[in-house]
Write a structure and sequence with these properties.
Helices cover 56% and strands 7% of the residues. By secondary structure, it is of the alpha+beta class. It has 4 domains: 138 residues, Glutathione S-transferase Yfyf (Class Pi), Chain A, domain 2 (Up-down Bundle); 66 residues, no CATH class; 163 residues, Neurolysin, domain 3, CATH 1.10.1370; 241 residues, Neurolysin, domain 3 (Orthogonal Bundle), CATH 1.10.1370.40. The strands form 3 sheets. Strands 3-4-5-9-6 form a 5-stranded mixed beta sheet, sandwiched between helices. Bound molecules: zinc ion. Zinc ion binds next to α16.
């Protein structure tokens, strides 16, 4: 295939999603990797290790690869099919091999050392210096200091890890897609809200090949309403078991997509790789690039939060049990009863339900309100634009303006559909950087959610939880798009310590809870009335409902992840379940089915070579940062433009160009404390 006819080999300002096809992928990526390797060789041959002749051309070739790979990888997540997946899986080991070779290139490492030790280094910008120091650190993490034998072993294990983690994620997706349950008798679905019923009916027609009835699946918009609202306990049990045994040796698909062995291989490979680099375990390696210093510090941090919130979590669960016994004559709660009775208890206590609130949050209102919030805080204008090619008709596109100048663009893909990976995320499509000709490449982001879509002509109605998810991803997006850094490696979200990356996202969620901002983001889909004060007061009262139980659950995941990567040994067969059981004994206050194998679908920590591995604690760590940052707005006014500008110019604008702790201190005037979070969650007075 000629270069000319392959859209992935052409230079596009934005990815040509309307042209990219599966057969373009492998030849394009192979050609780019080959070009890049030649370029590296010629940089080294020239032997001039200045910023302009070493760092800049390397940034250029890295960006070329990322501009081709990012849309491809993205399409595989949002409009996947067998051909795409196969092409992506063919490229993954090639890219991993290329990156490992680059990261292990002794000559390149020495070239960067020469630049770091040159007189020129002191004349570089803060961002340029940081990017060079990060490169040196990453070279060492790539095993550049290893002897040849160990180096090739390192490369081999890295490649295996990349393939196995990708298989892990694929099996979770396959297991999720493979399970569905058709119901023909609507009485079995008593309690389910109309929106969920319509969705199940639609699913039966489309996925079930025109079948009559209601099709339930393990996608969140189908699964969650059943667990929360459906009166039918045996149906809840059936779905819960299908969900929590996905990709395991238990449950309805036992053994079909079993990730057990892959998980052990991932743990073993990570440990071997860490040890090749002279770290005792993967947890130590993971923290080498993070804001937290040691695994022990993280365990102490999590244990401190667990200790401060356990009693509150226990009493919340005891209240739930008492409620179920008193009003429903239920003696003991099963795992599939917790969300169901919690919803009833919440309704009884606060006379408020997720469904009631949904009516006030039509997606178009929420989106434009969210843009107004960003306008008030950061002085930016967000406008819908119509000239960006996309991957699906549901996707809308926007440009961000500051002082009447376009500074960024993004895609918004809100609704769940089949062949789209679950969950919500923001990803980098284009990074802000200065091009060789001196012009500026503007950042572009993907914002992806999985909300229930519109039914018929009515707008999609978001739950308040969806609202927070959307603000969360938009917060990530703003971090990526409002950067003022021109050096790709530390621009936007690039180079930000993993445990600080959730600061802007969790920070922005706070505006889903404020009277003044809710006036902008709510409007009843029929009456147009914004969220009434009465409902808002109830919502605020309900905000911390079971917050200690939620805290306990997140601490369970975080402690499990950190301990697993600290303690894993190839000699003990049943250690994963043992560690999980120990952590549960320490923090978990709700019942767990003995069949539960959630860890085998824990793609956060096992779905990519590093991902959130030994890093799940980052959510809590960043929550502490975000609660503490927001407390300054509570002191100075939630739309205080000067405080907004300060957040923008310290944390958002600087991205990864400075240490996360320094940026936090520059904004807050001191180091972070857990007090604001415990207060925000209603756990501490
Ligand atoms: Zn996030």
């Amino acid at each position: 295939m000629s270069q000319l006819s392959n859209p992935l080999l052409q230079n596009h300002e934005l990815p040509p999603f309307d042209q990219i096809q599966a057969h373009h992928i492998v030849p394009a990526i192979e050609a780019i990797l080959e070009d890049n390797q030649k370029m590296v060789a010629s940089i080294l041959k020239a032997n001039k290790f200045t910023y302009a002749e070493l760092a800049q051309p390397l940034e250029e070739i890295g960006d070329r690869l990322s501009k081709a790979w990012s849309p491809v990888n993205h399409m595989n997540s949002v409009v996947s099919n067998d051909e795409l997946r196969e092409a992506v899986n063919t490229c993954l080991p090639k890219i991993s091999e290329y990156e490992t070779a680059l990261g292990q290139n002794q000559d390149l490492y020495q070239a960067f050392e020469a630049l770091a030790n040159s007189d020129e280094f002191n004349t570089l910008s803060v961002a340029q210096k940081k990017s060079i120091n990060n490169s040196l650190r990453d070279f060492r993490l790539f095993g550049v200091a290893l002897d040849d034998d160990k180096k090739s072993q390192f490369a081999k294990l890295s490649k295996q890890l990349s393939e196995i983690t990708s298989q892990f994620g694929d099996q979770v997706m396959d297991a999720t897609d493979a399970w569905s349950y058709l119901i023909t008798d609507a009485t079995e679905l008593a309690g389910l809200p109309d929106s969920a019923l319509s969705l199940a009916k639609q699913a039966a027609e489309s996925k079930g090949e025109g079948k009559e009835g209601y099709l339930l699946t393990l996608d969140a918009p189908s699964y969650i309403p059943v667990m929360v609202h459906c009166e039918n306990q045996s149906l809840r049990k059936q779905l819960s078991l299908a969900m929590t045994t996905r990709a395991s040796d238990k449950g309805p698909q036992a053994g079909q997509f079993d990730n057990s062995l892959l998980m052990l291989q991932i743990l073993s490979l990570r440990k071997s790789l860490a040890q090749l680099l002279s770290f005792p375990n993967f947890a130590e390696q993971s923290l080498a690039t993070k804001m937290a210093d040691t695994p022990e510090q993280v365990i102490d941090f999590l244990t401190d939060l667990a200790t401060q919130s356990k009693a509150a979590a226990q009493s919340e669960f005891a209240e739930l049990e008492a409620f179920a016994a008193e009003h429903y004559d239920v003696d003991s709660l099963e795992p599939w009863d917790v969300a169901f009775y919690a919803e009833k208890q919440k309704k009884a206590a606060f006379d408020i339900s997720d469904e009631q609130l949904r009516a006030y949050f039509p997606a178009p209102v929420v989106i434009s309100g969210m843009f107004q919030v960003a306008n008030k805080l950061f002085g930016i204008e967000v406008k819908q634009i119509f000239d960006m090619p996309t991957w699906h008709e549901d996707v809308t596109t926007y440009a961000i303006y500051k002082d009447n100048k376009m500074i960024a663009r993004f895609y918004l893909d809100l609704y769940a559909r089949s062949k789209k990976r679950g969950g919500a995320w923001m990803d980098d499509c284009r990074v802000r950087r200065q091009l060789p000709d001196g012009s500026l490449q503007l950042p572009v982001a993907y914002l992806v959610c999985n909300f229930p879509g519109p039914i018929g002509d009515a707008p999609a109605l978001l739950s308040h939880n969806d609202l927070q998810t959307l603000f969360h991803e938009f917060g990530h997006g703003l971090h990526h798009m409002l950067t003022r850094v021109d050096c790709a490696a530390v621009s936007g979200i690039n180079g930000v310590a993993w445990d600080a990356v959730e600061l802007p996202s969790q920070f922005l969620e706070n505006w889903c809870w404020q009277r003044e901002s809710l006036a902008l983001i709510s409007s009843h889909h029929k009456s147009g009335e914004s969220l009434p004060a009465e409902l808002l007061n109830k919502m605020l009262a309900a905000r911390n409902f079971q917050s200690a139980m939620t805290m306990a659950r997140q601490l369970e995941f975080a402690l499990f992840d950190m301990r697993l990567h600290m303690e894993f040994s190839d000699d003990e067969e049943s250690q994963v379940q043992r560690i999980l059981d120990e952590v549960r004994a320490q923090v978990c206050v709700t019942p767990v089915s003995p069949e539960n194998r959630f860890q085998l679908a824990f793609t956060h920590i096992f779905g990519s070579p590093v991902g959130y591995g030994a890093g799940y604690y980052s959510y809590k760590w960043a929550e502490v940062l975000s609660a503490d940052a927001f407390s300054l707005f509570e002191e100075e006014g939630i739309f205080n433009a000067a405080t907004g500008e300060k957040f923008l110019s310290t944390i958002l604008a600087n991205g990864g160009s400075q240490e996360a702790m320094d940026l936090f201190v520059a904004f807050r005037g001191r180091e972070p404390s857990v007090d604001a979070l415990l207060k925000q969650d209603g756990i501490a007075a």
